[in-house]
Write a structure and sequence with these properties.
Blueprint lengths: L22 H11 L14 E2 L11 H20 L16 H11 L6 H13 L5 H13 L11 H16 L8 E6 L1 H15 L8 E6 L3 H5 L9 E8 L5 E2 L1 H4 L7 E7 L11 H13 L4 E5 L12 H4 L4 E6 L12 E6 L3 H7 L3 H11 L11 H9 L12 H16 L4 H21 L14 E5 H9 L1 H10 L2 H12 L1 E2 L1 E2 L9 E5 L5 H26 L10
Parallel strand pairs: 1-11, 3-4, 3-6, 6-7, 7-8
Antiparallel strand pairs: 2-9, 4-5, 8-9, 10-13, 12-13
Helix pairs in contact: 1-19, 2-4, 2-5, 2-15, 4-15, 5-15, 6-15, 7-14, 16-20, 17-18, 19-20
Length: about 550
């Protein structure tokens, strides 16, 4: 690690051993350096961990609805076996269910969650045209967790309702032809795992194949292709900070190469938290027209924080696998709620049908225990089977209470036509960003419609050059290791950030989550960052004889 002669060492030599770590594993080392426990404890208020994306806000109304629905379902269960006082209940009964539910609502008028449930049933019946009785039965049986998920991919009416939510949030007013299927999964992480695995099992990607990644990107998308399980070649499509974290036309044109089998991206991006511009989405859709065999995966977990968001799934539905997680928007990381959606007429099923005969024979054998027509099994249903190693397909599916909460979250959003909840979250995270940047001394820019602001990324090269010139940046990188700044923040200010390099940024940077701390905490983080910058400017002046103004951060 190159240092100025005679200057004190600011980083332990052991830090050099962390270069290969995932940013989420490095986070634990930074927490230790900050004097915290490797097992994070929210009560440790003296340490400010802005490295993790877990929000400190959550949606209360659909949670109140969940618990009230649970009480009603328990009453229905006990009613079924009323002759057994030993704590034995039964399944709810369909006959008279809606009338008993109305009575329950009247008896509990004014209790939090009751008005939401009343509105939810009305919305399902009057707006979606579904049977209120069938909906209530599915929700009661689901919340009691008294049966396997049937169908295993997703409960029948739950899939319809979640589908409407995805249409509203991911497609919006964009023209969309056809229908799509949904697989309810254990969060976005499960979605990633299942998709990579089923693509491999069905020979849609194999060792030595080339895929493209939209960089920067959530770290697992970088790490999974390198594993021995996959051994994929990767082409990076780089979004640049100088271009407001958008992809240039030249970068997107890399997808025209027929060697590229698939393109994976996170939109809005992680960590820059910027949605892909309309022009770039249209360019990708045009490339798909020229390359109808190209598989796309868009992970749109942060799309619900954007204004008028439109997913790539809306523009190229037949080529796109849509991944969405409820974790961040509803503050539900512990619930593990996610979805995978595919158009019913998609390139995945077509490519499977075009596989060589010997491969199709192998796949026929793989799936023949679960269907009499394994060759016709859709990709999304192969996902379900593979998620339970095929042999346990009969017990596949997200737990039914999880699906119930997913449905209630979806209905809460569908019923919130003024977008009051969404607008409140946007105000919250943007006020935190403003506080952070004000304390650092960087001008706050809030006029880019593509900025989502769940995270912000502090690009040391871009910001340093803008504030102090290229000579300062080159001196800084010559005399420090990228991780040094993060470890110094942790040790000296007890502030934890994640390294942007772990997400594929081209320049050394730090990811700041704007979701998990209070506004005053972001001001404290901003002051700590400013103090560190000022010290490096003083060191630069002493080493070079220059007279940079350490207060000039902008």
């Amino acid at each position: 690690m190159a240092k100025e002669k005679g200057d004190k060492k600011h980083a332990d030599t052991a830090e050099q051993d962390f270069s290969a770590l995932s940013p989420f594993e490095l986070k634990d080392e930074l927490i230790k350096a900050a004097g915290g426990s490797a097992v994070e404890r929210p009560a440790n208020a003296s340490m400010l961990n802005a490295g993790r994306g877990n929000p400190n806000f959550l949606a209360t109304i659909p949670r109140h609805g969940f618990w009230q629905l649970g009480l009603f379902a328990m009453r229905e269960s006990e009613r079924s076996f009323a002759y057994m006082p030993e704590g034995v209940g039964g399944f709810p009964k369909r006959e008279g269910l809606t009338e008993r539910f109305e009575l329950f609502l009247r008896e509990n008028r004014g209790v939090p969650g009751i008005d939401f449930l009343r509105g939810a049933v009305s919305y399902v019946r009057d707006q979606l045209g579904l049977s209120a009785g069938d909906f209530l039965y599915e929700m009661c049986e689901g919340i009691l967790a008294s049966n396997y998920p049937v169908p295993d991919r997703m409960l029948k009416l739950s899939e319809v309702i979640v589908g409407q939510y995805l249409r509203r949030e991911m497609i919006g007013k964009h023209p969309f032809i056809g229908e799509f299927d949904i697989f309810a999964v254990e969060g976005g992480t499960a979605a990633m795992t299942y998709i990579f695995n089923t693509l491999r099992e069905n020979r849609l990607i194999k060792a030595g194949d080339t895929i493209a990644l939209g960089m920067p990107i959530f770290t697992p998308y970088i790490e999974i292709p390198r594993l021995n399980d996959y051994q994929l070649n990767v082409v990076n499509l780089n979004a640049d900070v100088e271009n407001n974290w958008q992809y240039s036309k030249a970068e997107l044109d890399k997808l025209r190469d027929p060697k590229v089998k698939a393109f994976f991206l996170v939109n809005p991006s992680n960590p820059p938290s910027v949605r892909i511009s309309d022009e770039s989405l249209e360019q990708i859709a045009d490339i798909v027209k020229a390359r109808p065999d190209l598989i796309l995966l868009t992970d749109d977990v942060y799309g619900t924080f954007a204004d008028d968001f439109v997913s790539l799934f809306a523009l190229a539905p037949k080529n796109t696998i849509l991944v969405y997680s409820y974790s961040k928007y509803f503050g539900a990381t512990g619930w593990r709620l996610g979805t995978i959606a595919t158009h019913r007429d998609n390139v995945l099923d077509r490519l499977i049908a075009e596989l060589p005969k010997d491969v199709k024979k192998e796949l026929h054998t793989r799936y023949e225990s679960i269907t009499t027509e394994p060759d016709k099994l859709k990709f999304i249903d192969r996902l379900v089977a593979d998620s339970r190693t095929v042999a346990l397909n009969h017990t596949a599916g997200l737990s039914t209470p999880q699906q119930v909460q997913m449905v209630l979250f979806s209905l809460f959003s569908l019923m919130d036509t003024p977008d009051a909840y969404k607008n409140a979250l946007k105000r919250l995270i943007r006020s935190r960003k403003r506080a952070l940047y004000e304390e650092i001394g960087i001008s706050f820019e809030d006029d880019d419609k593509n900025q989502v602001d769940y995270y912000t990324i502090l690009d040391m090269e871009f910001l340093g050059e803008r504030a102090f010139g290229r000579e300062f940046v080159e001196w800084l990188f010559k005399n420090t290791e990228p991780s040094e700044l993060l470890f110094r923040l942790a040790r000296e200010a007890r502030v934890v950030l994640l390294p942007g390099r772990g997400f594929g940024t081209k320049h050394p940077s730090g990811r700041v989550s704007l979701a998990n701390l209070n506004e005053s905490d972001y001001r404290q983080i901003g002051r700590a960052l400013r103090k560190l910058i000022e010290e490096y400017v003083e060191r630069f002046n002493a080493a070079t004889g220059k007279t940079l103004d350490k207060g000039k951060v902008e």
